[in-house]
Amino acid sequence: MIHMRNICKIYERGRVRAVDGVNLDIARGTYTAILGASGSGKSTLMHLIGLLDRPTGGTYALCGQQTTGMSARGRAALSRKHIGFVFQSFSLVPGMDALENAALPLAFRGVPRGERIDRAADMLCMVGLGARLRHTPEMLSGGQQQRVAIARALVTDPDLLLADEPTGNLDPKSAREILDLFDRLHASGRTILWITHDRGAAQRAERRILMREGRLCPEEET
Ligand code: ADP
Ligand code: MG
């Protein structure tokens, strides 16, 4: 699904080699954790994988499509088609209830309202929020807000769920609930790429890769 070769991201100002020659292959249906200290380049790599940012070198194919040389518009379309994002901050729309928040990506695609609401409700039930459909973010705990964000990421049925420190703002119990949800998603066949600096928690993934100073280390070292 992901095929990266010698991917680099060098920031000219300060000459930071944030991502420095990464080779990465991710197969469909796998659950991978990318581990690494703060500043090791994890978020930069995630932005490159999600096509939110452009590498300064290397080649990247997503779901069989070569992305190098694609227009900004083409990259955005490819990202929307294949990837669902979850970030440390839940970034839900305040004042909008869980259903409307989870349905937003479908609204951007012109899916009719009735179908949007049905699909969002299905996803919210799947993440265990069937009884909170009409709650706005202000009425939900952090863990519940993150589950709405996961429902929103999955409502388009993406090939890949990309999560950057999704439990970083959560208390331990809520964090465990999110990771339990990831286990269930993986068991149901989802492909998950999870970025974390928590070595202990990363044991829950089926594969671990360590990032250090912009490079990926062999898995034996993690
Ligand atoms: P992590 O997510 O592992 O904490 P990041 O990918 O956020 O690491 O950052 C990797 C390195 O790239 C850091 O040294 C950071 O300071 C640098 N960096 C990130 N974004 C920029 C930017 N826009 N301009 C310059 N340097 C950046
Ligand atoms: Mg980061």
Describe the structure in your own words.
The chain is α/β, with parallel strands linked by helices. 35% of the residues lie in helices and 26% in strands. The strands form two sheets. A six-stranded mixed β-sheet has the order 6-7-8-3-9-10, sandwiched between helices. The radius of gyration is 17 Å and the shape is globular. The structure holds adenosine-5'-diphosphate and magnesium ion (MG). Adenosine-5'-diphosphate binds next to strand 2 and helix 1.
Write the layout of secondary structure elements.
Elements: E1 2-11, E2 16-26, E3 31-35, H1 42-49, E4 57-62, E5 65-66, H2 72-82, E6 83-86, H3 98-108, H4 113-126, H5 142-154, E7 160-164, H6 172-187, E8 191-196, H7 199-202, E9 207-212, E10 215-217
Parallel strand pairs: 3-8, 3-9, 6-7, 7-8
Antiparallel strand pairs: 1-2, 1-4, 4-5, 9-10
Helix pairs in contact: 3-4, 3-5, 4-5, 5-6
This protein binds adenosine-5'-diphosphate and magnesium ion (MG).
State the helical fraction.
25-40%
Give me the strand/helix succession. EEEHEEHEHHHEHEHEE
Question: Mean pLDDT across all residues, rounded?
Answer: 94
Bound molecules: adenosine-5'-diphosphate, magnesium ion
Q: Tell me the distance between the termini.
A: 23 Å
Question: Low-confidence parts, pLDDT < 50 over ≥5 residues?
Answer: none
